[in-house]
Sequence to fold (569 residues):
Amino acid sequence: MPYNPQNPLIVQSDRTVLLEVDSPLYEGARDALATFAELEKSPEHIHTYRITPLSLWNAAAAGMEVGEILAALDEYTKYDVPQNITAEITDYVSRYGRVKLMKGVDLKPCSADDNDLVLYAEDPVLMAEITHNESVKNLLGKLIDPQTIAVPYQLRGHIKQALIKIGFPVEDLAGYVSGSHLEIAHRPVTLSGSPFDLRDYQRDAADVFHLGGDVRGGSGVIVLPCGAGKTIVGLGILFETQCHTLILSTNTIAVRQWIDEFLDKTTIAPEDIGEYTGDRKEIRPITVTTYQILTYRKRKSEDFVHLGLFSEMDWGLIIYDEVHLLPAPVFRMTAEIQGKRRLGLTATLVREDGREDDVFSLIGPKKYDVPWRELEAQGWIATAECTEIRVDLPEHLRMSYAVASARQKFRIASENPDKFPIVCELIKRHEGDQILVIGQYIEQLKGIATSLNAPLIMGQTPNLERGKLYEQFRQGNIKLLVVSKVANFAIDLPDANVAIQISGTFGSRQEEAQRLGRILRPKTDGSLAHFYSIVTRDSRDQEFAINRQLFLTEQGYRYTIRYDHEYTP
Fold:
């Protein structure tokens, strides 16, 4: 291919891809890259993506073929795509599905035990490699033929975990149990009096996940923005599966929001929905619980007393809300229940612990993803303006900062007292709006809440009080809420239109996604949403903010950098 200077991509032999932001072809190239590459850096002019095995396997699982990926690179690259990159993309994409897990009777008559599954590879050499791998061979049963080996049913998840770590993602075609039947349908008009039906993208996501009950459906992750109705996608899948369902969410408030959605939008009877939290222990055909209660134990040496909930009923579907937060003990239990349909819901596949491959192998690959800006253009989420405001560290803190440890540097910069005047000025500029002030450090938040005479919601706030404050905010009786990270996840505040972030969890991209999502419900008056992040200039705070902003770039948002003197009253 000849040199194309107008194109915005440079594909490099180390699997990195450079993207010029100022190119008129930037948006098309960005959207194409997002389907099979991961964003690593996003400074002003050149963004860096990396093509990884997992990003390619997710693309392959979602139906992308090698030709589509190479065509996208060819369309936007300045120079020829390096030959080794073409070869690696071809190789890694082809690895998905080379190893299949299935019921023995679905393959051919074999001598596997009735309760066993079989691992099948068309290439006998590949099967030989697998059976001789030290981390895999102890999970396998007897060799049936050079291409087929038995796998004990209870090790279905463990073998998938092990194989992805040696570079061979398994296509799981072993099917699912139906679970106990449950009649459930959607109401054309909700109990609150509004017309209800799934939006096109919500129905598409549900259909792609379920695939009409085919074994190629039934497990995977749906990626949608906060405010785009991930809960409704879950309901849509339940309308298709018609089965007893266990739902795992992030906190008690989120549990009750799920229950409210069921009661408002479905025909399910109230006595068929259970809340399994610290407050109540109800096990019903639809049971909604929290990750926190499932991972509770009195001492580290003791068992997790509530993990048995996974086997308490004949569940046909497990829904993992905010799946990027799935804790390790729940991963372990999920490996044991691979015969049940498993749905992950999230706004971002990024995990801070790097265990995206476990989500892929145990919950399932990414099945559906809609760019935030696409839903924004369709009016399903609000248009957002993102601004970073940089504030100098006060003179009296500079020496303390200079001699502090890395962790203490971050805290000193995060709690910079000179952020407070900026908060006050932003609140003044947005008088009449529904404003959230969001932070990480409780003493900082207490001081701001007291100074602003605003209610504060934090981890110690009782659920009943939280619920009342959220409801008053939704009703517009409260215009300003100060919230800790407990408000990051699964909280429905549709009228919030201004978020002021004063401190965050180091460089957490997932947190940035959740905090931005708090203000993205479409506004009845069509007004903009505003997301402000106040950071200390030339500090650890600013360094971590750069990583958090990767999420904004991934979703197509551009953020403006301002300085404190521009907000001086």
Observations:
- The mean pLDDT is 87.
- The chain is about 35% helix and 20% strand.
- The longest strand covers residues 384-391.
